[in-house]
Amino acid sequence: MPGPAPNLLSYPDTGALAKQLRPYVLGNQNSALERHDTFRVAVSGGSLPATLAKALLAPGDGSKEDTAQFSKWEIFFADERAVPLDHEDSNYKLLKDELLEKIPSELGTPKVYTIDANHVKDDDPQELADLYQEELMRSFAAKDSVKLPVFDLILLGCGPDGHTCSLFPGHELLREKDAWVAAISDSPKPPPKRITLTLPVVTHAVNIAFIATGGGKKDIMKQIFDAEEGRSLPSALVNQGAGEKVSWFTDHAAVEGVSFPRRGSL
Predict the structure, then answer these.
(1) With CB atoms counted within 10 Å of each terminal CB, which end of the chain scores lower, N or C?
(2) 8 A C-beta contact, residue 128 and residue 135
(3) Each residue of 150-180: pLDDT tens digit?
(4) What is d(CA 195, CA 21) in angstroms, rounded to the nearest whole number?
(5) Which backbone phi and psi does 102 adopt, to 5 degrees?
C-alpha cells in the first residue's frame, strides 16, 4: 500500500475495542473543541452506533478530557436511507435507539442533522441529497468559499463487499468529485434509495475511523489490506485517499489471516 498507511488496530472482542475507541473519539473531540469549540462528526449505521454507545456511555475517570461534551457535538450522517425517521431502516433511528436516548442529561444534548422527512417518498432521492448538502453548507460555511467540508471525525462501517457509507464497489458514485452529498437510487442492498457523503468529503476529514468486527469480515479485510484486486473497493479507496488519517478498529476475528501489520492487539 503506497504512501502513508492507515492504522490497523485489533482487539480480542468488541468490549476491548470499545474501551480503546473511547479515548480515540474523545481525543478527536477535545482537539476539535480547541480548534473551533464544536465537534462535527459523521456516523454510519450497522453495528457502529451500538459500539459507539458502549464506548462513550461507559463510566469515565471524571476528568474533562475523558468526558463526552455532547452539547458541543454536531452529528451528521455519512449515509442515510430514504425512509421515514422512525423506520427500522433509518440510520437516525438506529443512532437514536442505541445512543442518543441513553445520553445522561448532564453530558448535554448533541445537535443532530437528519434528512428532510418531507422528501423521503420522492421517486428520486436527489432532492433529499441536495437539501442535506445545504445543511452541510450552513454548518461548514458557504460552498463557494469552502471546496469541501472538513469533518473533525467520520465513523464508518465496512460491508462484506467492501462498501462504506452508501458507496458500493464499481458504482459510478465513486467517481463523483464535486457534490458533497450524492443520491443513489439503485443500491445493491435494500432499501435502494439513499443519500451518501461522497468519497472526497470522506477523505478530507481530519480523521476517519472504521469499525469492523466478526469473522464474517475476514475475507473482505484480506482483500482491502493484502490483495491488489481489492484496491478499487470503496473502503480501500478511503485508505488510499486518507492514509494515516484512517484508523481501523477491529476484533481479532475480523483480521484473522490478514498479513498487513496491525497494532493494539491485547
Answers:
(1) C
(2) no
(3) 999 999 999 999 999 999 999 999 999 999 9
(4) 27
(5) -105, 0
Q: Encode burial over 124-146: b for 16+ CB neighbours within 10 A, e otherwise.
A: ebbbbbbebbebbbeebeebeee
Look at residue 263 in the predicted model and tell me its pLDDT: 78
Rounded distance, CA 51 to CA 150, Å?
24
Q: What is the residue whose three cell numbers read 440510520?
A: 91
Written as nine digits, the cell of 16 is: 476491548
3-state secondary structure 61-72: CCCCCCCCCHHH
Q: Is 108 exposed, middle or buried (0-12, 13-18, 19+ CB in 10 A)?
A: middle
pLDDT digits (tens, 9 = 90+) for 38-83: 999 999 999 999 999 999 999 989 899 999 999 999 999 999 999 9
- Read off the pTM: 0.95
Give CA–CA dist 31/157, Å, rounded: 23
| Contact present, 112 and 228 (Cβ < 8 Å) | no
